[in-house]
Structures are given as structure tokens and as C-alpha cells.
Design brief:
This protein is an alpha/beta fold. It has two domains: 239 residues, Type I PLP-dependent aspartate aminotransferase-like (Major domain) (Aspartate Aminotransferase, domain 2), CATH 3.40.640; 106 residues, Aspartate Aminotransferase, domain 1 (Alpha-Beta Complex). 34% of the residues lie in helices and 14% in strands. It has a seven-stranded mixed sheet with strand order 2-10-9-8-5-3-4, sandwiched between helices. A three-stranded antiparallel sheet has the order 11-12-14. The structure holds pyridoxal-5'-phosphate. Pyridoxal-5'-phosphate binds next to helix 3. This is phosphoserine transaminase. It comes from Rhynchophorus ferrugineus. Pfam families: Aminotran_5. Keywords: Amino-acid biosynthesis, Aminotransferase, Pyridoxal phosphate, Serine biosynthesis, Transferase. Pathway: Amino-acid biosynthesis; L-serine biosynthesis; L-serine from 3-phospho-D-glycerate: step 2/3.
Length: 367
């Protein structure tokens, strides 16, 4: 029960910029002196139309999205998007290539299997934590698309490059690292990301699709997942997650004001380098199981008390963290240990407070 802003290292829904939340609060019950909350307004009102347009324009500007790409919002979360991707694109040749590097790409592959043939381009590792060399992948030249998860939120694995697929359209899940680094949109067929980590509250998913890939959806594709239909109706085919998109538009403006994606990227490098350095400099007291070339800048899993982790010490670490207002540091139940998520709204200073805790905790508990 504190009004002090928590040091929130949660994986999602995640921390949002305080400026944005304060602004939302100030106009919550009367948006632009209308006497109505934005959440009480029609998705066809001129107020919401302006937000819908501004959010799309900001995404286009911030990510430098070429004109032959549509930007839209759907619901159903990341899991919904896994199905939507298959329903929109898998019909082309009936099969698709999936690179499974962790929890979320595995779930996406499983979802796609309901609608066609899924080829795993490399065998599933027993333990995630690395990305096999591209030369060893078996890509199908007739795949409808090649799919990967750019940042595995649970496992802490992030792609250090965009894969080479020799013309097969690339579909990427950027749910946990969208707007945290620059990338060349023109290399992709489709990019999607749930809002609830770097760009807003839960409820909306941003989808960016190259126009020539539209129009091939399966007959069974639900209208709300049909990218051609949704984009043709400018993301008001049906009632969108208006409040979520309204807050997202403010977060995007906040990103723009804070140096754009360039600014987010340099912050992200600084934050993650600081935390990885603290892990490295601890001897083996803290350890990260992920290979160095694919360590996530965003979700950083680590163990306390040796590479296998000491669960008792880890529980103590979490307790000590909460005493210092640091929350949601518990690793995913499938992985254990600690996980620090460093999304855009988490500052370098927040991370340094965590590093400080790590140092003090080590001094106290290393025998
Ligand atoms: N993809 C990634 C990379 C995620 O981190 C998550 C959720 O954490 C999802 C997909 C699933 O998103 P949702 O819970 O919105 O279905």
C-alpha cells in the first residue's frame, strides 16, 4: 500500500511511463472537456478516429514503415496473433517454416499446426538458450512464410540478426521487443506485437503487413483476424480495444519525445549491459544460462547461488527485492530463478538500483 512508484521488473503487463499514466488520469473522466471518458466514446467518433490515425502515424514514423505496408490493430493477444498469422498466410502453399527458440515460438508453431503443415527448421533444443547456426537450418523454399520470435520473453533469447530466407516472407513476433531497437521493416512480410510490454496496456496487438501478402486468408479465417478486412476497415471493422489504443498512442508520443526508437535502443543497450556486467562480475554467484551472442536486452533470466540456482537464496533475494520496492522479479514458472524485464519505461537508474541490491545481497550471502 504505497503511493511510491514501484520498481516494476515484470514481464507483462509491464511498467508504463508515469507521465503517460498521469496524463491519462487527468483526462480519464472528461476527455478534451467533453464530459465523457474516452472509454465511453464510440469507436466511430471523431475523437477516436483521431487517436486511431495518430497511433498508426506514430508507428509508421517511429519504425520507418514503408508505404506498401499496412498498420492495424487486432485483439486476441499474442496467442490470437499466432492463429491469425497462420489463417492469413498458411493457405498459400499449405506449409510454413518455424524457428523454435523458446516458449513463445513453440506455442506459435503449435497453433499453426491446426491449419497446415509446420516444418521446424531446426530440432527443438532440450534446453533453450541458443540459436543454432543459420547454415544448419533446413528451410523449405516453398514455405508460405518463415516464422520466428525476435525476443523470447520467458527464456531470455533475442535474435542478433534478421534471418536470411531467400525470398520467403518473414513473419516475426516482436511482442516483447517492439520499439526497443531499430530494424529494417522492409525485410519482413509481417510483424506483430502485443501492446502490453513496451507500448501500452493489454488489449491491442499491433500488426504490420506487406500489402502484397494480403488477400490470401483461409475461408475459415474469422473476420476479426482477417488482415485484409481489418486493414480495409482501418481497424474499426468492429469495436477495437479503444482504451488500450488510446494509452498506446500516448506511449508512442512519449517514445518520440525521448529520442524515438534510437533513444530507446541506446537506453536498452545501457540497461542490459549494466545488468549483464553485474552478473559477470559476480563470479558464479549470479549466472545467466543464455549464450552471449543471443542474450536478450529485454528479459534477463539469472540464477542466484551458482549456475544451477539455489532456490532458498532466490526466495530470499525476491524478499529482499520487495523490501526495496522491486517487484515481479520471479522467473517464469517453467524456468525458475530470477527474471528482470527491462522494457522501455524502466530507466537505467531503476536497473542500477537492482545491481546495487545484487552486490549487497552477494556480500551478505556468499559463504
Ligand atoms: N509472444 C511473446 C513474445 C510474448 O511474450 C507473449 C506473452 O508474454 C505472447 C506472445 C503471448 O501474448 P498474449 O498473452 O497476449 O497472448
Amino acid at each position: 500500500g504505497s503511493s511510491q512508484s514501484a520498481l516494476n521488473f515484470g514481464a507483462g503487463p509491464a511498467k508504463l511511463p508515469r507521465e503517460v499514466l498521469n496524463e491519462v488520469q487527468s483526462e480519464l473522466v472528461s476527455y478534451q472537456n467533453s464530459g465523457m471518458s474516452l472509454m465511453e466514446m464510440s469507436h466511430r467518433s471523431k475523437e477516436y478516429a483521431a487517436i486511431n490515425k495518430s497511433a498508426q502515424d506514430l508507428i509508421r514514423e517511429l519504425l520507418n514503415v514503408p508505404i506498401n505496408y499496412k498498420i492495424m490493430f487486432i485483439q486476441g493477444g499474442g496467442l490470437g496473433a499466432f492463429a491469425a498469422v497462420a489463417l492469413n498466410f498458411l493457405g498459400k502453399t499449405g506449409s510454413a517454416d518455424y524457428a523454435v527458440t523458446g516458449t513463445w515460438s513453440a506455442k506459435a508453431a503449435k497453433e499453426a499446426e491446426k491449419y497446415g503443415t509446420v516444418n521446424l527448421v531446426f530440432p527443438k533444443a532440450d534446453k533453450p538458450g541458443k540459436i543454432p547456426d543459420q547454415n544448419t537450418w533446413t528451410l523449405n523454399p516453398d514455405a508460405s512464410y518463415f516464422y520466428y520470435c525476435d525476443n523470447e520473453t520467458v527464456d531470455g533469447v533475442e535474435f542478433p540478426y534478421i534471418p536470411e530466407t531467400h525470398g520467403v516472407p518473414i513473419v516475426a513476433d516482436m511482442s516483447s521487443n517492439i520499439m526497443t531497437r531499430k530494424f529494417d521493416v522492409s525485410k519482413f512480410g509481417c510483424i506483430f506485437g502485443g501492446a502490453q510490454k513496451n507500448i501500452g496496456p493489454a488489449g491491442a496487438v499491433v500488426v504490420i503487413v506487406r500489402e502484397d501478402l494480403l488477400g490470401n486468408a483461409m475461408k475459415i479465417c474469422p473476420s476479426v483476424f482477417n488482415f485484409s478486412q481489418v486493414s480495409k476497415e482501418n481497424s474499426v471493422l468492429n469495436t477495437p480495444a479503444t482504451f488500450s489504443i488510446y494509452v498506446m498512442e500516448k506511449v508512442l508520443k512519449w517514445i518520440q519525445k525521448n529520442g524515438g526508437v534510437d533513444g530507446m535502443e541506446s537506453q536498452s543497450d545501457k540497461k542490459s549491459n549494466g545488468l549483464y556486467a553485474a552478473i559477470k562480475n559476480s563470479g558464479d554467484f549470479y549466472s545467466c544460462p543464455i549464450e552471449e551472442n543471443c542474450r536478450s536486452r529485454i528479459n534477463i533470466p539469472f540464477r542466484v547461488g551458482g549456475p544451477q540456482g539455489n532456490e532458498e537464496l532466490e526466495a530470499k533475494f525476491l524478499e529482499e527485492a520487495e523490501k526495496r520496492y522491486m517487484y515481479q522479479l520471479k522467473g517464469h514458472r517453467s524456468v525458475g530463478g530470477i527474471r528482470a524485464s527491462l522494457y522501455n519505461a524502466t530507466s537505467y537508474e531503476d536497473v542500477m538500483l537492482l545491481v546495487q541490491l545484487m552486490k549487497e545481497f552477494q556480500i551478505q550471502h556468499q559463504n
